[in-house]
Structures are given as structure tokens and as C-alpha cells.
Design a protein that fits this description.
Blueprint: H1 26-36, E1 81-86, E2 95-97, E3 100-107, E4 110-117, E5 123-130, E6 134-135, E7 139-140, E8 147-149, E9 152-156, E10 161-166, E11 172-177, E12 196-198, E13 201-205, E14 210-214, E15 220-224, E16 235-239, E17 242-248, E18 252-257, E19 263-268, E20 280-282, E21 286-291, E22 296-305, E23 308-317, E24 328-330, E25 333-338, E26 341-346, E27 352-358, E28 363-367, E29 370-374, E30 379-386, E31 389-397, E32 409-411, E33 414-418, E34 422-427
Antiparallel strand pairs: 1-34, 2-3, 3-4, 4-5, 6-7, 8-9, 9-10, 10-11, 12-13, 13-14, 14-15, 16-17, 17-18, 18-19, 20-21, 21-22, 22-23, 24-25, 25-26, 26-27, 28-29, 29-30, 30-31, 32-33, 33-34
């Protein structure tokens, strides 16, 4: 292999040579948390904007922000910081709904979900349970990102604890544990695929299977597959006139019927380290798969055949290897970090159009014709991109104090960046009051 690897639900990771993590300072975290706590009835609550960034990679789980225009020119050379908060170690990203900013963290020997006020960072609620996943390389903390639907928050811990919480209070509505009957089914780096919600059904990926539960009651609907899964988060897509749930197992990519859980199709996709990134479901019933470690990418066309759905390879390429970051699309273009270098391909042909700019194993989101790339050192780069190449229009230090491996989030004109120690919130709407903290 040459390098040791860390993976997470967010698809993030890095080589051992770049891996520097300090021990968490839980006393400092406790002090910060106590200082921002306030009784719910003592906080003036502004009218909450409509929920937008409610799951891993945004409203469609595609890493694209199109809610409102963003400003990329700032008088001080960087956008105003709205607020910041200390957080415990985790590889979770952030979701934003009902005026709350929600993420996961490790708190000593407990996994936790924590919600902050969107405007000032005041602590709204916390929910925690006994559990601590720890690995020598990937260290400790939850991996998955919460998902919000209506007034419910669904979370998954690294040891299989699945909980549905009340969005307003954080109280538990129901819980399950995906590994209760067989803890040995856990993956080497812990359960990492973020839960997904479609209408009133929660879809969650365990170590060897995929299950569906009723969002309101927690009632079990179905469980399918019996094989080692990968770390990638499942993706929904409309394929051949019906909704498919596309999941990554260790040796193949599989399409499931979202209603019944039955397997509809699959194609082989083997990769090193179980680090397939989230497949992209494209128009015209196509699926784009990508992995690192020399694997590359592949576009598959799904067609209705005499005996069922038949996957046919359109092209293969070794020039687009997104080891830990999911690609983002812009019409027929796909952008991703090919082993740390920003790369653009034409998804129709697989042709690489350009490869420029080293960002390490960072993460990227898209807004209009701009990419926001957060590199593994916490630097934010704003790039205007097209088929000709990238142009950097702004950059600033987004977060300091350790490796930045968590996927950023965008909601209501704010940029949310976190690492193992701190959550930073920047206002990209323009000039606004800054709340220190």
C-alpha cells in the first residue's frame, strides 16, 4: 500500500505522513460548552429560515449550494466570522434546520449529538449515550453526519447506535443498534455511512447490510444484503422510472429498490481500503463511480434488458481518482481531487480536461460556477471553474488547530467548517454583525 489510510462517512481521509492529531482537551470543551449554555426559554428565538442543508452533502446529497447568492469579495480579505464553538473529535459534517446547527462529537466515553443556535452559537441541546470508537490511526469519535426530516433528527454512531431525536429538544423518540447482535460486523474504521431519509423512511447502512426503518415509529421495514460494506454514504437516484438506493459494498456497487429493498442491479467495483466515494447518479440512467489508490473512475449505463436491469460500461479512466472526496457536477463536467490535485473531466467521455492545484485530501462544494475547496490544513479556496481551468478568486484560513477532514456545509448564506476541535461559522451574505465566541 505504501501509506496507511483513514476513511470516514464523509469520504475524507489522508496519508499517515500528513496525519497529526492531538489528544482532545475535554476540560476546555466542557468550559466552552458551559459558557454558551442557556435555558431554552431565556433565549430570544428569531424566526427560523426554511430548512435547507438537512443531510450529508446538502439537500440532494450532491455537494451543490443553490439556495442564495454568495459573496466572495470581503473588505478584510476574509468573510466575517459569525461565531465559533469548541467541539469534540468526530469526522461528522454539519446539518442546518429550524435555526439550529447540528453535528456529532465524542465527549470522553460518550458519543453525542449537539445543536447550536444558528445566529449566535448558543447551545440549544445535547443528546449523548455511552460509546467510544477508537482506532490507532483514525482515533476516536463518530463518523456519520445527522439527517433531518421535518421535526426529526436521525443520527448514527460509529458503534452502530441509531437514534431518532426531536429536532426542537434533542429528546429521544426511538433507538436501535445495528451491531447489537454481532459487534464483530463493524467495519475497521467504524460505521461511517450517514443515514438517509426519503419521505418517512430512514435508510441506514451497517457493516454488512442495509436496513430501512419507519421515521416516526422506528418500526423495521427490511434488511438486505449480507456482505462487507464500504464507507460511502448511500445515494438516491431516479433510474429507469423508479427510485433506486445506490450503495457501495466492498466488491461491488448495488442498486436497491427503495421501497422493498430488493436488489435491482450491481456491477463489480473493487478497490483498496474500502474507500469508494459516494456514487453519483446522473441523468439518462447513468452512475459514476470513483475510487483512489490507482483505481480511477467508471461510468455505467443502466438499461432494461430481457432478464432485468443490465449495467453497461460506457468508459473507464485512471485519470480521475477521488480517494476521499465526492466529485461535484456542473452540467457535463465533474470536479474532484484526484489524489489531492483538483481535476476536471467530461463525464460523457471520461476525458480529463485539466488537472491543476494541490489541496491534499480536502473537500469541495459547488456554488454556481465556483468551487469552495477546504484543504486538509483548513485553508478555504474559492475557485471559478469551467472546462478551461480554475481561477482562484479568494482564499483564507478557515479553521486552525489540527487536520481538517470534515466536509464543510453551506446554508442560509453561511459557511460551516469544523475539524476535531472547533466549529467555525462564516457569513458569506455580505456585511453583517459579528458574534464573538
Amino acid at each position: 500500500m505504501g501509506t496507511a489510510i483513514l476513511t470516514s462517512c464523509a469520504g475524507v481521509g489522508h496519508t499517515l505522513g500528513s496525519f497529526v492529531r492531538s489528544s482532545p482537551d475535554y476540560d476546555e470543551l466542557d468550559s466552552d460548552r458551559e459558557s454558551r449554555s442557556a435555558p431554552a426559554d431565556s433565549r430570544e428565538k428569531a424566526e427560523s429560515p426554511e430548512a435547507f442543508w438537512t443531510q450529508y452533502r446538502g439537500p440532494r446529497s450532491d455537494g451543490i449550494y443553490d439556495e442564495s447568492d454568495l459573496a466572495f469579495s470581503w473588505p478584510e480579505g476574509k468573510p466575517p466570522k459569525q461565531w465559533s464553538a469548541a467541539v469534540g473529535p468526530a469526522y461528522s459534517s454539519v446539518v442546518v434546520a429550524n435555526g439550529l446547527v447540528i453535528t456529532m462529537e465524542q465527549r470522553r466515553d460518550r458519543e453525542a449529538v449537539v445543536a447550536f443556535d444558528l445566529e449566535d452559537g448558543a447551545l440549544a441541546w445535547e443528546q449523548s449515550w455511552p460509546g467510544r470508537f477508537h482506532d490507532v490511526l483514525s482515533k476516536e469519535g463518530p463518523r456519520a453526519t445527522p439527517a433531518v426530516q421535518g421535526d426529526s433528527v436521525v443520527t448514527l454512531g460509529a458503534l452502530g447506535e441509531l437514534r431518532c431525536l426531536d429536532l426542537a429538544t434533542g429528546s429521544v423518540r426511538w433507538r436501535r443498534n445495528l451491531l447489537q447482535t454481532n459487534p464483530d460486523d463493524n467495519l475497521h474504521f467504524g460505521l461511517s455511512a450517514s443515514p438517509r431519509i426519503l419521505e418517512d423512511v430512514v435508510y441506514v447502512q451497517g457493516g454488512t447490510n442495509v436496513s430501512a426503518f419507519d421515521l416516526q415509529s422506528g418500526k423495521w421495514h427490511w434488511t438486505t444484503l449480507d456482505e462487507t460494506m464500504a464507507y460511502a454514504t448511500p445515494q438516491f437516484g431516479e433510474i429507469l422510472g423508479r427510485t433506486h438506493l445506490v450503495v457501495c459494498a466492498k466488491k461491488r456497487i448495488i442498486g436497491l429498490d427503495a421501497e422493498k429493498g430488493t436488489e435491482l442491479w450491481s456491477f463489480p467495483w473493487k478497490y483498496l481500503g474500502d474507500t469508494c466515494t459516494q456514487p453519483l447518479v446522473l441523468k439518462q440512467d447513468r452512475v459514476l463511480a470513483s475510487s483512489g489508490y490507482g483505481k480511477g473512475s467508471q461510468l455505467v449505463q443502466l438499461e432494461q434488458g430481457a432478464t432485468g436491469i443490465e449495467p453497461k460500461v460506457v468508459w473507464r479512466s485512471s485519470r480521475f481518482k477521488t480517494r476521499y472526496n465526492e466529485p461535484v457536477l456542473q452540467e457535463h463536467l465533474a470536479f474532484g481531487l484526484d489524489e489531492g490535485t483538483l481535476t476536471c473531466i467530461d463525464v460523457d467521455t471520461g476525458k480529463r480536461l485539466w488537472k491543476e492545484g494541490r489541496y491534499g485530501y480536502g473537500q469541495l462544494l459547488r456554488h454556481r460556477d465556483h468551487l469552495l475547496v477546504v484543504d486538509e490544513d483548513g485553508q478555504v479556496h474559492v475557485l471559478r471553474v469551467n472546462s478551461e481551468g480554475p481561477t482562484e478568486v479568494a482564499s483564507f484560513e478557515g479553521v486552525d488547530g489540527g487536520m481538517t477532514l470534515n466536509l464543510p456545509a453551506l446554508a442560509h448564506g453561511r459557511l460551516f467548517i469544523r475539524n476535531e476541535k472547533v466549529l467555525m461559522v462564516y457569513d458569506l451574505r455580505g456585511s453583517t454583525p459579528v458574534v464573538e465566541g
